[in-house]
Amino acid sequence: MARPPITQPHLVPVTGIDAHLPPVPAQALTASRLRERLAAAAGWTPEFTGDGGRFTDRPPAGAAVLVPLVQRGDGLHLLLTRRTDHLRDHAGQISFPGGRVEPEDDGPVATALRETEEEIGLDRRFIEVIGQLPVYSTVTAFQVTPVVGLVEPGFTLTPDPDEVAEAFEVPLAYLMDPSHHRHHVFEFAGVERRFLSMPWPGAEREYFIWGATAAMLRNLYRLLSSA
After folding, report:
1. What is the Cα gyration radius of the chain?
2. Is residue 5 part of a domain?
3. Are 167 and 80 in contact (CB under 8 A)?
4. What domain range includes position 129?
5. pLDDT for 123-173, tens place per residue?
């Protein structure tokens, strides 16, 4: 049976918070350590491989996202986007920049860099690709490859207003601290559904990071915490 999308994830009850798990230590959240860990991650099995059953009948399609880690003076910051409210898929959600693989793309890295330029105007000359995380399967039938990149400061963003409402940064250390990882469970038509969230209390609004974005970040946490 097809599953409907979750339209109000912030209202789904929290069933647990992972405060018992240790945060990734600061010395593991540097550009050099991330390069080393990703280079040694071949064959690694992630905690989350996908959302579960799809709620669409369309065939799976390849996609790629960039996990852009901006090198700031106080450490690495993750650059994320808030999608516009009128999109067919993922409207209003917090996402990595990225999208569907096109025939002209030479692999997921090319897709992630192209989509990042198109969505938020981040020029690829500021990006150093340092590795990939395992493919993640979404309920919207995308097989997503997360491409991890270090971003040099000095860039200017020009978000595409048709796709991106805003771009913002979150300290990577905040996201790599499981005391901010929340588990949600609810039941629909007798089927239990689960997802993870990592709400970020921004200066002017709370950004509810959840679903596939949160799951891929959790996979990054597991990779870095096992170093």
Report:
1. 17
2. no
3. yes
4. 16-225
5. 999 999 999 999 999 888 899 999 999 999 999 999 999 989 999 999 999
Residue 38 in domain: yes
Under 8 Å between Cβ of 195 and 217: no
Nearest one of 204, 213, 197 to 83, comparing CA atoms: 213
Distance CA 163, CA 110 (A): 19
Backbone angles phi, psi at 213, to 5 degrees: -60, -50
pLDDT greater than 50 at residue 63: yes
Beta strand 61-72 with 142-151: parallel, antiparallel or unpaired? Answer: parallel
Q: Is residue 141 part of a domain?
A: yes
**What is the model's pTM?**
0.92
Q: What is the mean pLDDT of residues 69-98?
A: 84
Total structural domains in the chain? 1
Q: Is residue 2 part of a domain?
A: no
CATH number at residue 23: 3.90.79.10
Tokens found for residue 139 = 């309920």
Q: What is the pLDDT of residue 1?
A: 44
Q: For Cα atoms 203, 214, 222, give the angle at the middle one, nearest 5 degrees.
A: 115
